[in-house]
From TrEMBL:
Signal peptide: none annotated. It holds the Pfam family EVE. Transmembrane segments: none annotated. Residues 4-144 form the EVE domain. This is EVE domain-containing protein.
């Protein structure tokens, strides 16, 4: 089983959560075909906006991949301009494992994440790919951070 970090805009992350589907443009086909049923996919949402109004990069959810890669040209993703025409035609179906409410910030974890080679320019290091495999220890660290961020339910 492989652990994946998938990169998304905030708008596309909402669609992923609604439709339980992950898609990439044609130029990232060689990445998505490496996925297998049973792999997990963490959804990384890139920084939204600019200046003081910007929201920080976060991890919004964890999914299990439940289908082989398929091609679908329905325009469900608005897709960033640099990802081609926005179709994101190569897709896998997903089953939610956890929706992070609130989403967790990745920044405090960067010094400890082994898959991030350049700790100073980490956001540049992460950007530019649709997805990347991450080590099990890094996956566990992100999931543990999410559990720690969850509110504790009141005692009955």
């Amino acid at each position: 089983m492989t652990r994946w970090l998938g990169f998304s805009s905030g708008q596309n992350a909402r669609i992923i959560l609604q439709k339980n589907v992950w898609g990439v443009p044609m130029r990232f086909f060689n990445w998505i075909v490496r996925t297998e049923i049973g792999d997990t996919l963490l959804i990384y949402v890139d920084q939204q906006g600019a200046g003081r109004a910007a929201s920080p990069p976060t991890v919004a959810a964890c999914f299990e991949i439940v289908s082989d890669v398929y091609r679908d040209t329905a325009r469900i993703f608005p897709g960033p301009v640099n990802f081609g025409d926005g179709v994101l035609p190569y897709r896998v179906a997903l089953r939610p494992i956890a929706v992070f409410d609130p989403p967790i910030s990745l920044e405090p974890l960067i010094p400890k994440l082994s898959f991030v080679a350049d700790k100073q320019q980490w956001s540049d290091y992460i950007r530019g790919q649709a997805m990347r495999a991450i080590p099990e220890d890094d996956f566990r660290m992100i999931m543990d951070a999410q559990r720690r961020a969850m509110p504790v339910p009141p005692m009955a």
